Amino acid sequence: MRGLKSLIVGLLSAFFSTAFGLYFPPDVEQLPTITAQTSGSFIALPFDENFLFKCEAKGNPRPTYRWTKDGMDFDLHKDSQLIKEESSGSFLIPKDMAKYEGKYRCYASNKLGTAISEESELVVPMTPKFPKKKIEPAVVTEGDSVVLECNPPQGIPPSQLYWMTNDLQHIEQNERVTMGLNGNLYFSNTLMSDSHDEYSCFASFSKIRTIVQKPPMVLRVKPSQGDDGIKSVQKRKPSILVPSSHSTTYLKKGEALELECIAEGLPTPVVEFIKMWENLPNRTQIKNYGKVLTIPNVTEQDEWKYMCKAKNDLGEDEHYFQVVVEEPPSWQEEPVKSQLVEIGSDIHIKCSARGKPQPTITWKRNGQPLDDFPSTNYKVLDDRIIILRAQQRDTAVYQCEASNRHGTLLFNANVLVMNHPPLILTRDYLEYSTMLGKSVIMDCEVFSSPPPTINWRREDPEGSLDGERYSLLKNGSLQIHKVEMEDMGQYKCLAKNSEGTMSLTIELFIKDSTRIVEPPQDTKVKRGSMAKLECQAECDPTLRRELEILWMKDGMNILSNFSERYFTNDGTLQIVSVSHSDQGKYTCVVRTSLDQDTASAYITVLDIPDPPVQLTLSERKDRSVRLHWAAASDHNSPITEFIIQYEENNWDPENWKELLRVAGSQISAPLTLYGHINYQFRVIAVNAIGRSLPSMPSERYKTPPCAPDRNPENIKIEGRLPHQMDISWEPLLPVEHNGPGLEYKLSYRLMGVEDSWKEEMIKRDSFVVRDTQTFVPYEVKIQAFNNHGWAPEPRVVTGYSGEDSPLAAPANISVEVLNSTLLRVSWSPVPQTALRGHLGGYTVHWWQTQSLLTSKRIPLERKSLTIPGNRSHTMVPGLKPFFEYSLTVNIFNRRGNGPSSSPISFTTPQGVPEQPPILRATNFQKDSITLVWAPPHETNGFLTGYLLQYQTVNETLGELKSVNISAPDTTQWVLRDLQDDNWYKFYLSACTQVGCGSAISEEGGTVFEVLSSKQAVASQEWFVAIMCGVALLTLLVLIGCFVIKNKSGKYAVKEKEETPADPEAQAMGEESPCDSDNDKKPLKSSQPLFTDIKEDDSSEDDSIEFDEDGSFIGEYTGNKRRGSTEVNGHAPVTS
């Protein structure tokens, strides 16, 4: 190990001998030091229960206490009434405090010396009283001056003086009659009305809650008479009563200066104050009717010569004041409280004070005058003491008192003369931690006398402490700048003086820096929503438990200074219900005991704008005005537009309507106005967050009346009855009247027939023209009018008078049966003269008359199809195969239906049958299977037989085989020559002459071996049971189908004029093998086919509606019958 001479430093003796607050180890003797005391002057009020004189001190050995009162020893133990504190020198005076009035001082002593407290005074005042003596009346001649003396008793300030009568009425004061600062009542001159028998002076002492009254005084004012007996009051020039002679006023800096100047004379003098050769300061106050000058909180600049001047018409009088501003003692520099010096050195105790007058310095040692300790090594030089070659006997508490007439300062200086070996106060084997690149200070606090030399060296590992990075501080500590990893290890501090040596070992650890890895990001948030800031940090693993994350807003701790809306958790700050006050800079502070890192983000609060302000009007014209405004705060979201609203107080008061919108960059806008309206305006600002509240309304602006600007619009001409025409229109808004007396001129005439107009003046918004021809064209125009003129010439509109039902039916009806379910029908249009109205369209009606299969007549069930517009053909879908039908066509308009055409008959051809309702595979044998089924419910023609197909469905599909069953009554079939142990799928469809319908499927398999006779019998029994069940099930299905057929099966398709489609090209030749099932399945077409299929009033069947070109515009569905899986067509697809 190697010591470094560059870091061997001997600490200066002066540092230890003059250190403020020098620390003494507990086992080292110490002089007494006063730590708590009572100082100043205190008044014991009558209602005070007790008074505490405090005196506490520290020292080693523990100090003892004694007191003096008025300079004499005051033994607390001889007075049983006093309450003494055992742990200190404090004592409590009980309520009866009169006998304890005086000045007290505490002395705290141990074997090394004595410290003394500041002097404190207890004042126990007596109750103030005016002397009871007879006061002779004051008799003066009218016009003379007089003084009524108060001479108030001494009492506890503050006191208040005033003059009253016996009935407690205040004596009126003015420029002539004034109470002085001393309480006397001064009359500059007297009037006869001043004569009273009850002038009383009152003195109020608020601290002791006492008011005393002087016995009443009598003032007699005699009339003034000349030598000739005529009343005469002699005038005289002023004469100053107060002050009576030249005076010098002394006061402390900071007090209030009061200069009083009261003069007598007739007429009443006027008093003026002057600061010689300078102006009075601005804070000067003139009170008491101009007779008192007050300057609060005086400074050195107020020390001057002042003059008061009293003058009237006959002359003037003057008085001069010399004002001297003084100061109580104060330290020029704070004296040293404690000095530790080695034996044989010189001691300097300095006590420099300032004040006005200059304070007198008095020295004491251990509370006794320094002159009582004759010594050859003391030198007293004005404000300091020098002790030469100090010895242990010079150890003491030296007191310095600086005094002038305004107060006294006391200072205790502890001087300890001793030699002591080094005592290291820092704990041994202390561990220090710091961060890489930071600075660290390792303490080595030493107590010793004389001062030690301090030597630091590197222990483990050994290393050099040379270089600029290493500094030894005055207190012996070692500071390492910009710590490096190589600095980690043990260090030793050695302290040495003439009395001995002591060492200290310290270890230094280098930690990873604390740093923020995910700083908070600037964010914008709407007012009222939640804001969230994230702050994630990393630190040395050994400091993880003490890692602390704090949040600051604009430099203040959030948790200490903000509301409960702030929540922090694991580096996340959440602010709920964000308000404008939450906007600001937020700082994340991540800290450990060794270092910290910070990162900041700014939260911007977005809100709707504040309402615009400063609305004014300019460029006022008859029909326009310019509105100006000023934008207010946009709350961090730019204003995109302004909405200008208006309100008028005639037609719709207090209802604001939008007038104009302008860009957010504008601050004015021209407004086009209606006539005869009393406007006021307001503005709303809009930003991305929303609309502001409306601004305050502008002043009102009334436009003059004028003719209407426009005519009514949306004129409607309708004929609700055959011989009249109803005309209606959209009237002008009230604000569009532009003036009083609004009416409408309605003009109409037969188009192409009449040249002249028929006219009507109307105030309402509709009119009925009666006795018109049926459905003839008219020309109509409507013009607005008010008391100030006509609106512009109106435009002419055309319309028709009332409609009536059509007179004729369509002719030349022809039908073309396209397939078993679809029919094409055509006709010739009805002439316009027979239509008698607006063409609505055509309606096709059809109904079944009989079944061609059974020749049975069918009850009338009409169905209808509406074809809107001017069409002459259409398709009729949804017919049933092999039936006879009848069909009619009629036209309709808005008034109603015309007559129907003569019925025309047609028949539909046979179709393919429906799917059989049930198919079951039974009686599974080694090479045969029996199939059982029920016939289809609707054969749609003459049934010719069945098509049975089958194939194996093992791992792959086998060849599809077919069996034609020509007997239509067959309901079971035995398939033979099947392969054993195979699984089969069967398909069965019914057939007519047209073809076969959709197939029903079933699956079953052959067995592997021949059944025994017993098994065969069981199989036969099972087969019989199955057949009975099939027959019962078939019967139930037939009954159910019959019921459903009579109660349902209807379809309706909604009219859809917007997407017409012509089905003719699609419908031709599209009959499928399953047409017989069309009442249960949707038609297969690329477009919906039906529009509006309606029933006649007498029919319960479905209705169908076509669009204008006869195309279907809807679809219809039936009820699907549930059964086995369906296969469309005659046979399934083979693999």
UniProtKB/TrEMBL annotation:
Natural source organism: Carassius auratus (Goldfish)
Annotated SUPFAM superfamilies: Fibronectin type III, Immunoglobulin
Skewed-composition ranges (Acidic residues): 1094-1110
Protein name, as recorded: Neural cell adhesion molecule L1-like protein
Domain Fibronectin type-III: 611-706, 711-804, 809-911, 913-1013
Coiled coil ranges: none
InterPro entries linked to this entry: FN3_dom, FN3_sf, Ig-like_dom, Ig-like_dom_sf, Ig-like_fold, Ig_I-set, Ig_sub, Ig_sub2
Subunit structure: May interact with L1CAM. May interact with ITGB1/ITGA1 heterodimer and ITGB1/ITGA2 heterodimer as well as with ANK3.
Domain of life: Eukaryota
Annotated signal peptide: 1-21
CDD domains found in the cross-reference section: FN3
One GO biological process term: axon guidance
Gene (UniProt): LOC113092481
Pfam families in alphabetical order: Bravo_FIGEY, fn3, I-set, Ig_3
Subcellular location: Cell membrane; Secreted, Extracellular space, Extracellular matrix
Record-annotated Ig-like domain positions: 26-123, 128-212, 238-326, 329-416, 421-505, 514-604
Family in the record: Belongs to the immunoglobulin superfamily. L1/neurofascin/NgCAM family.
Residue span of region Disordered: 1054-1135
